[in-house]
Amino acid sequence: MARKRTAALAALAGTALLMVAAPAPSAPRAPASSGTAVTVRTDSGLVRGLRTDTHALFRGIPYAGPPKGVHRWAAPRPVRPWKGVRDAVKPGPLCPQVASPYARVSSLEEDCLVVDVTVRAAAERPAPVLVWVHGDGAVGGGGLFDARRLADRGLVVVTVNYRLGVFGGFGYPGLAGSGTFALQDQQAALRWVRRNAAAFGGDPGNVTVAGSSFGAAAISGHLTSPGARGLFHRAVLASGEGMMDMPAGAMGEGVPAYPHYTWRTEREVRATGVEMTSSLGCARRDPERALRCLRALPVKKLLAVPHIMNAFQTFAHGTEVLPELPEKALREGRFPRIPLLTGATRDEHRLFVGMAHDAVGAPFTAGQYERALATAFGDRADEVAAYYPVGDFPSPALAWATVVTDRMWARGAWAQARAFGRHAPTYAYEFADRDAPMYLPFPGDFDFGAYHAGDTPYVFEDADAQRRFTPAQVRLAGTMTDQWARFARTGTPDGPGLPPWPRFDPSRPVPHTLSLAPDRIGPVDYARDHRLAFWHRLDRRTTAPQAEPGEGK
Question: 213 catalytic, yes or no?
Fold first, then answer.
């Protein structure tokens, strides 16, 4: 039974979390290729970046020592200071990862704990700092994100590499820190920012941490982690999964239901580690000997285990890093009273349905829709089918994507906004551009709508998306970037020249959620549009969001 459960969790990661947040599935881009040298002194030594007429860019600066050998699956350690000037013009290495059909990047390099820093050439001092925690948990890196658009708004932007997949989330009996190494890396990067922001013109007393998908989930963990206290002063969570559960089959056929999408107990993570590494020739009765064997294995051999990278895209609670379940802590108000910007996309789940079915030439059928409803909702499936009749949608795939978007993603986003809004200044949004350019190379035709992570290129520069933007989408990207920058500067995303954006107040009949689309930026009744009252009635578990007047019919 335990073996089947571990395999199912591995399948979950492989089908559901793959390639959902990198803005371009290609090698890291160098935003600037020529300019003059500029040198900055960090606490570990001098670094030489590149200054153009518009920006200064520093790439591949180490914030922690190499997690190699005996330091694989250990807490990040300090950087060894260097003599002379370290070149910081070329991209640093990506952390170990496996290429996929939709993310043509790979790496075998463990010495990868680096940051990039982007600054406007004539930026004010001290400037607000924004730290970007990229999404996914098995591919990508900070160097893939071109932050010039944000820097143009007067921010110092730091993008972070951290350990991915099995290297960031591995657990094993007796292994301290099991399931939390990625979180520990991110906190080490935030401590680096606190020590070094001023050297780049940034204000260490005004740091915003922002992330999408897996990165936003990590931030919801940091909000409850003792090790992150005081390391940031505002947070942006885009498509965060920290308060989301998972119906059976929602993330792929055969994937079981689970009460928490992001969180696992330390025991579960360690059991997954034993199961996933059983074929590596390191089985030992003594866990310490087994770990020595595993740490000595070449990266390539670890990556050759099917699904091993995807099996560890969760975070372990009941640990020193996450003493309690973050969802519970957030729901009960145990987090800092800092300004929070939180939201989701209008059609979150279309990406996952499309990439598994219609967009790859395997259309999702009406029969599959009926079976999927039965798997997810059991004897309540007919009620869901009556509320979401397949004939009301252009295709069964879009019917199923809407069901899961509303039931899982929207309900989780709503719960998160309500939990935040009860205790801290909270601003909620929905990215609603249903013509957002699809940057992943799918062979089939599918209406992805405002899909998961489709908003990322509207804030970070992306050449492929930019070429396909309409003038209205260019204006939307400019507004969204202005809003993020305003939030990082002041703690509120509205201001002169920007659309009004009141706080999300859970006590109001319709708490303010700002819809962001090229043809309209304005309030939306998020709960009604995603039929949350129906889902609340259908499933009155204690973790369900509490219904409010106006939550749909």
Answer: yes
pLDDT digits over 108-145, tens only?
999 999 999 999 988 778 999 999 999 988 999 999 99
Sorting pLDDT into bands at 50, 70 and 90, what band is 33? low
Q: What is the DSSP string of 483-538?
A: HHHHHHHHS-S--TTS-------TTSSS--EEEEETTEEEEE-HHHHTTHHHHHHH
Q: Which two tokens stand for residue 439?
A: 């940057």
Two structure tokens written together for 358: 């219609």
Amino acid letter, 553: K
For the chain, percent of residues with pLDDT exceeding 70: 91
Query: For 14, what's the count of Cα atoms within 13 Å in the CB-facing half-sphere?
Result: 16
Alpha helix positions (H), 247-365 = 266-276, 287-296, 299-303, 326-331, 350-356
Angle between helices 266-276 and 2-16 (to 10 degrees): 90
DSSP state at residue 405: I
From the candidates 44, 107, 212, 213, which is the catalytic residue? 213
Instruction: Give the count of beta carbons closer than 10 Å to the beta carbon of residue 503.
Output: 16
Q: Residue 90 half-sphere exposure, CB side, CA atoms within 13 Å?
A: 4
Q: How far apart are CA 285 and CA 218, in angstroms?
A: 33
Looking at residue 153, its amino acid is R
Phi, psi (deg, nearest 5) at residue 192: -60, -45
Kindly report, residue by residue over 476-518, the tens digit of the pLDDT: 999 999 999 999 999 999 999 999 999 999 999 999 999 999 9
Phi-psi region of 523 (alpha: psi -120 to 50; beta: other; left: phi over 0): beta
User: Which helix or strand (DSSP H or E) is residue 114 part of?
Assistant: strand 114-120
One-letter amino acid at 528 equals R
Q: Cα separation of 340 and 328, whole Å? A: 18
Q: Which of 75-79, 331-335, 434-438, 442-446 has the lowest mean pLDDT?
A: 442-446
pTM score, whole prediction:
0.94
